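DM from R.C. (forwarded with permission)

"hey, sorry to bug you on a friday — could you get me a structure for this? deadline for the figure draft is monday and I only need the backbone to look sensible"
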Amino acid sequence: MLEVTGLRVAYGGIQAVRGISFHVNDGEMVALIGANGAGKTSTLKALSRLLNAAGGSVRYGGREISALAPHQLISQGIALVPEGRGVFPRMSIVENLLMGAYIRDDKAAIAADQHHVFSLFPRLAERAQQLAGTLSGGEQQMLAIGRALMSRPKLLLLDEPSMGLAPLMVQKIFEVIRTVADEGMTVLLVEQNAKLALEVSRRAYVMESGEITLTDDSAKLLENPRVREAYLGE
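My reply, with the result:
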């Protein structure tokens, strides 16, 4: 579904992403792990066109998408859950979810998808009319994921969904991510918590200093001595 070749991202004279190549198959959850500053978020921002790549190719469904505007990617079936959540703080939970469906006009299906989001995140249903800015960090993360799902994406890009959350909330968020993947969603997960990412994904790529230095099945990476020492604290 997604094929990235030689992707480069630069900030001024600093190379944040140094010609990386990777792919994500249809229906697969793939993780991109690495320490803070490895280039993971820059990669997702380039994929979602929030940053202009300095070079390389990004093909989605066999089509080059490097020149598309960010809003055009939504209609192509790509949705980003950004680092920091990015909810609309002065809008209610329901209004935030409807913003996720702004490209759609199938009202009955939108209502069904909202019901599905509420089934995934009952806490959001309980607070449906509450302003997003008054929610906890974990609830805002739930809302950001739910908003992305409302666009009915084929490819879901998740940027650091566990960041800043309490362990119990992280567990709930990742249960939902696993459920969404089991339902057939293709997911690219960027996550600093390597253990969590490797436990839910099928394959993974390890990023260091803007380069991909290792790739394998996630189960094998969990047992890799280098990964265990560098990212699992063992």
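R.C.: lifesaver. The chain has a mean pLDDT of 94.
me: no worries. The chain has ten helices and ten strands.
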